[in-house]
Design goal:
The protein folds into 2 domains: 2-139, Tetrapyrrole methylase, N-terminal domain (Cobalt-precorrin-4 Transmethylase, domain 1); 144-250, 2-Layer Sandwich (Methyltransferase, Cobalt-precorrin-4 Transmethylase, Domain 2). It starts with a strand and ends with a strand. Helix content is 36%, strand content 23%. The chain is globular. With 253 residues, the protein is an alpha/beta fold. Helix 3 (77-99) crosses helix 4. Helix 2 links the parallel strand 2 and strand 3. The strands form 2 sheets. It has a 5-stranded parallel β-sheet with strand order 3-2-4-1-5, with helices on both faces. A 5-stranded mixed β-sheet has the order 6-7-10-8-9, with helices on both faces. It binds S-adenosylmethionine. S-adenosylmethionine binds next to strand 8 and strand 10.
């Protein structure tokens, strides 16, 4: 039997790792540490640093790094993601067979929290569906959305209003979601907000949240939008990669 803990580690600030995450890391027999490529070596370094700093002397955990398979870039996005998840599940299964043939506790480091735009839970479910004896638990982590609102010192929702969370791709394709007053946008490969008529919209933007190079901008979209686009391009060129997230509000603050 494998006990798989999906451990949310926050989004770049080691101080955001919870005591529950530290306990889960320290009771694991095997810690799997994904390397994602895309030149984001800072993120792998951070995961390594967490393991180095948080594992205590009595930990039996063996830390194993692995390369995530690449996702097919074909047009059928959902089909490509489905195949990609199968490939990742196969890599996890191989690693478990190799390093824990008699079973044990596996800790998987998950960026932010496993519930938010992360497929670890879906991939773990595939192990069970393939007939493996795997019991999964989740250790919640601080999400990029929480770090964004904390950094800007704003509530996520307007008073008594809902919030919609979406992706850059979807915002670009479908425009402003009808009836939404606040929209949080993740996984934007660049400036999906440029497709919106900016009148009456306010934006709070953050890149590299929680890290030393954290960068924040906010303002009415008409003025802040072009500034964010320029800053994003400059930061990306400087660091070789970028991760950013933003919250849009339909009414001014
Ligand atoms: C695959 S999702 C993972 C989200 C993660 N599970 C969470 O709880 O935040 C990656 C997206 O999260 C956002 N993100 C994650 N970490 C971030 C950070 N440190 N700064 C800004 N955005 C971040 C970006 O929108 C990025 O494209």
């Amino acid at each position: 039997m494998i006990r798989l803990s999906l451990i949310g580690i926050g989004t770049g600030n080691p101080d955001h790792v919870t005591l529950a995450a530290v306990r889960a890391l320290n009771t694991a027999d095997l810690i799997l540490l994904p390397r994602k490529g895309e030149g984001k070596s800072d993120l792998v370094d951070l995961r390594r640093l967490l393991c180095r700093n948080l594992l205590n002397a009595s930990s039996q955990a063996r830390v194993v790094e692995f390369d995530l398979p690449q996702r097919d870039s074909r047009n059928d996005y959902l089909g490509a993601v489905d195949d990609w998840h199968d490939a990742i599940a196969a890599v996890w299964a191989d690693l478990m067979d190799t390093h824990l043939p008699a079973g044990g506790r596996v800790g998987m480091l998950v960026w932010g929290d496993p519930s938010l735009y992360d497929s670890s839970l879906r991939i773990a479910a595939r192990l069970g569906a393939a007939g493996r004896a795997v019991e999964v638990d989740v250790v919640p982590g601080i999400t990029s959305l929480q770090v964004l609102t904390a950094a800007h010192q704003i509530p996520l929702n307007a008073l008594a209003e809902p919030v919609l969370i979406t992706t850059g791709r979807r915002l670009r394709e479908r425009g402003w979601p009808e009836e939404a007053t606040r929209v949080a946008v993740m996984l934007d490969s660049g400036g999906a907000f440029e497709a919106l008529p900016p009148e009456g919209l306010y934006i709070w933007w953050g890149a590299y949240l929680g890290m030393d190079k954290q960068c924040l901008l906010d303002g009415p979209l008409a003025e802040a939008g072009p500034q964010i686009t320029a800053r994003r391009a400059a930061l990306r060129a400087q660091h070789g990669w970028i991760m950013d997230i933003y919250l849009l509000a339909r009414r001014p603050r």
